[in-house]
């Protein structure tokens, strides 16, 4: 155990120490978390009677954690403050794919091929980067490459099947320009500004990200189409004028005007819907707010709660307007 590490453990036993996960690993001279470094850090902390909150292997490298000899309440505000604020961009970048900046599982070059097999099977990975404990990229190993090499060499070891020239992109690279390369290879590793590998982007990640970006637009469009048909069947253009503004047809109404119109006295009974007006219009107003967010085409996906609002309200509209 180095003097630096021993001093850190002694200091933490006396008084709680707050530091980032990256700085914590540095006490062991580690740059990354993998199946050899994480157990070593955890074991040393446990032997010293120390706890790390939140768990250092369950948060980002820039998250602030507290190492102490007793359980402390997690400071949620502090964790939130460690998250970098991202502003909307004109183009989608590699870093807009969540997995690009989410530490990737790796193996060290002295691991066995059996260990590589186990890690890939355990996590359902098709490929795995090979990275030294000080953060240097050696290459990648994949099921495809293992299969090709073992056709001619059934007893090949890990060092033989490593692809030492894998595709690597940077966080600020234009995503659209890199898509052909990622699809051709099946994946690309991602470097941050310090040149350390900070994530991976696979074809599955691209497919999921574009689904997350596109789905809300289609759901909002379907909600509005069905709502317009329902209102158009029950009311004339003259009826719609009560919400104010220049309305020439139901198609010229905004989501805010839909909400105000349906809340007008005497309007709801004419739809003959056996649904509570207050709850329906509250949910419609929530759809309006989500709609306003996605119209900015922000790269960050909606939250699960926002997606559920859109999906649930779309189901409501399917029941009220069964027409395709």
From TrEMBL:
<dbReference type="Pfam" id="PF00571">
    <property type="entry name" value="CBS"/>
</dbReference>
<dbReference type="InterPro" id="IPR046342">
    <property type="entry name" value="CBS_dom_sf"/>
</dbReference>
<protein>
    <submittedName>
        <fullName>CBS domain-containing protein</fullName>
    </submittedName>
</protein>
<feature type="domain" description="CBS">
    <location>
        <begin position="100"/>
        <end position="157"/>
    </location>
</feature>
<dbReference type="InterPro" id="IPR000644">
    <property type="entry name" value="CBS_dom"/>
</dbReference>
<keyword id="KW-0129">CBS domain</keyword>
């Amino acid at each position: 155990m180095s003097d630096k590490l021993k001093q850190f453990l002694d200091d933490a036993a006396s008084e709680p120490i707050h530091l980032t996960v990256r700085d914590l690993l540095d006490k062991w001279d580690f740059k990354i978390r993998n199946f050899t470094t994480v157990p070593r850090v955890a074991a040393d902390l446990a032997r010293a009677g120390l706890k790390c909150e939140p768990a250092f292997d369950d948060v980002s490298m820039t998250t602030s954690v507290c190492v102490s000899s007793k359980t402390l309440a997690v400071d949620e505000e502090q964790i939130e403050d460690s998250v970098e604020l991202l502003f909307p961009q004109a183009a989608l970048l590699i870093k807009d794919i969540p997995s690009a900046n989410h530490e990737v599982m790796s193996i060290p070059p002295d691991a066995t091929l059996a260990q590589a097999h186990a890690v890939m099977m355990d996590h359902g990975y098709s490929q795995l980067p090979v990275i030294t404990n000080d953060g240097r990229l050696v290459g990648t190993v994949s099921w495809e490459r293992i299969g090709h090499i073992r056709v001619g060499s059934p007893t090949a070891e890990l060092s033989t099947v490593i692809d030492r020239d894998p595709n690597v992109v940077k966080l600020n690279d234009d995503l659209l320009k890199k898509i052909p390369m990622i699809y051709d290879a099946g994946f690309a590793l991602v470097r941050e500004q310090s040149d350390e590998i900070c994530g991976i982007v696979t074809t599955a990640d691209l497919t999921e990200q574009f689904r997350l970006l596109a789905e809300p637009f289609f759901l909002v469009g379907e909600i509005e189409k069905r709502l317009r048909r329902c209102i158009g069947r029950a009311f004339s253009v003259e009826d719609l004028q009560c919400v104010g503004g220049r309305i020439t047809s139901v198609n010229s109404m905004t989501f805010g005007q839909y909400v105000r119109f349906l809340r007008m006295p005497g309007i709801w009974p004419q739809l003959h819907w056996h649904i509570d007006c207050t709850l329906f219009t509250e949910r419609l107003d929530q759809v309006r707010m989500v709609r306003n967010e996605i119209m900015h085409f922000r790269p960050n996906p909606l939250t699960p709660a926002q997606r559920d609002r859109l999906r649930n309200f779309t189901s409501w509209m399917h029941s009220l307007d069964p027409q395709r």
